[in-house]
Fold:
Amino acid sequence: MSSRILRLAMLSVGFGAAIPAIAADSKSTVASLEDIVVTATKREERLMDVPASLVAETGIELSHRGATQLQDIIDNTPGLYNSAPGPAQQAKITIRGVTTGTFNGLQQSTVALLYDDTPVDPGADGAGTTNLRVVDIDHVEVLRGPQGTLFGSGSLSGAIRYVTAKPDLMASMARAEITAATTEQGAGSYNGNLVLNTPLIDGKLAVRSVAYYYNDGGFINDPRTNRGNINSTQTEGARIAARWRPNDRLTADFTLMAQESVDNSSASALDPTPAGGSHFQTDGISETVYRSSNRIFSLNLDYQFDHASLVSNSTYHRRTGRNDGNEYAFVPLISFLASGFTSFEQGAGQATFFVNGDYVTEELRLASKGTGPLRWTVGGFYLNATGDLSQENSSDLVIPYIGTGTMVDLVSSTKQKELAAFGEASYTLGKLELTAGLRASHTTLDYHAVTGGFLAVFGGPYHLEDFHENDKPLTPHYSISYHMNPDTTMYASASRGFRIGGVNITSGVGGRESPKTYGPDNLWNYEVGVKGHGLGGRMAYALSVYDIDWKSIQVSLSNNFGNYTGNAGRAHLTGVEGQLDAHATRWLDVGVSGSWARNKIKEGVDGLITAIGVIDVKAGDRLPAAPQRQLSAFLQGNFQAFGGHDAYARLGAHYVGEAFTGFAGAGSRFGDYTEADLRLGVHVGTTEFIAFVSNLTDVKGKQSALDAQSLGPITFNGQYAYYVRPRTVGLTLRTEF
Structure:
């Protein structure tokens, strides 16, 4: 581990974190569904009372599923998807199919990702999605549908919130966990974590810490360099949290979190598999190593007045990413120009991509308390995000009339600021509850870019480009709820989402015909639903139907020299989502959830330049990059094993429908697979032993795809697929002491 993370991890071991007793968790994962409390509306409410399509998984459920990262949350939540054809640190999360491609570019995310109250990726800086590991989490909330009123411009289609387990002010606790696994036709994996809790002053001050390390073995092979299992990843991290409660009114939570990750390959394989080759095989055109680092500092102050609560959340997030690689795409052309060389091994290009971001946020909100008919929340939000991005592609070969050196050189800086005021109020009339909210924002975005290199300007001077955008969106939310009885809630809602515009900073590189800028997009989401409990609280269900009108949609496009973003017409998205979880019998838990969507272009646009050619997008064309059907289900039996020890067996599966990289079913096809997992666990005192098989049937599922791109003799990349991990068998030991 790096020295900085190691020091933080060692400090973690000296302090600690509180967790529930393992033995008490083993009998059922869903027996107390009616007691789930969430904070999706920035106040504590029962899950069933929130008038929105909301999925919540407790830490117990996450543990029983073996969830360790963001992709594990995605796999169990229909309507939520990651379409990125690359490693976990460059994920592209979508909800309800609000996407137009597999590439993020510099677009602001359509899904807000929050770590407690910290917005993790609020900027439009091309840094991708932060994949923080799921360790010692109280619960995870997934809010489907725009959340612009409470969470701002980065939540066009929804939000995901990790709620960490907080320090226990009274009880000391410690837990350790280790896992070892082997992947079919791949390398082994191992990971471990340690969680500790130490009250320093009983009832007033406690410190909790987490340290973890993950090594996920690779399974992609590169025949060109005769290397196997090239796509291994390593992740190390630590978190320290302190809670101070000097009296009954004030609670202060300070959190310091750090994580570093290394993805040793893009993890993409050729599709279709070359004749006579292995199934997971790449062409070696681009050999990359992607490194990412995250540092998050947050201070949350909660003061309880007699009739209201005041919360201040201050955060700083430092994020860096670096992609280093050898590029063989230009070698055939460059070799021909130089001396007629034809072999990959006679030369190569180097590519370095670096991005970093600094995000400072402050939110101050005041919320009413009590059980009166009127409840309200008002607040203000401030974001200051700065980022730097650089890219350099160079050649080792001497090219006539040009020489050797830099082919593409790009340096850019970003400044994004947001000021917002928001408020929401609910009024109860008997069984009826009316809610209205509004967020007024002022967002400014400034880019400064310098491009050069002989491909960009063919020997001419460097080119400077400045870009400025000023947006003042209003994002309202309205809902009406009918609490038929204490166990049943019906609701209808309308809400608006907004995403800021941006710039294509490499416009003009190598004669590229792409727009220099693209505008903001927005949508209205209309939804009706019902949720409730049954079987004396042992069953929970939810059903929702939505209709989305998406305007000026930001489209992920590509041309001869890479990717860019444009605006294209209008889209209409409709769908149904449902979930049922039950403690069916004394020994059996069951659950099923699914989504069906119909995502179509409503108003098209002609002449879009894509990797598969210039296309006209017509009304009725299907949107790309998101499956229209998803399904997840599980069965868990809880029983007494030998010696009377609590044990369980869990079989889970999820289905992903087909999707395409292009509009109207064009481009590469991916999805349309079912993946199953089996877990067996037994508790012996405070120790749990777990055996598991992931991808039980060893399905060759394609999570995403990337179309081939070439220009004459230059092949930038082949046609790739990003596969789910092959069958993996492992053991986990978890103990408290």
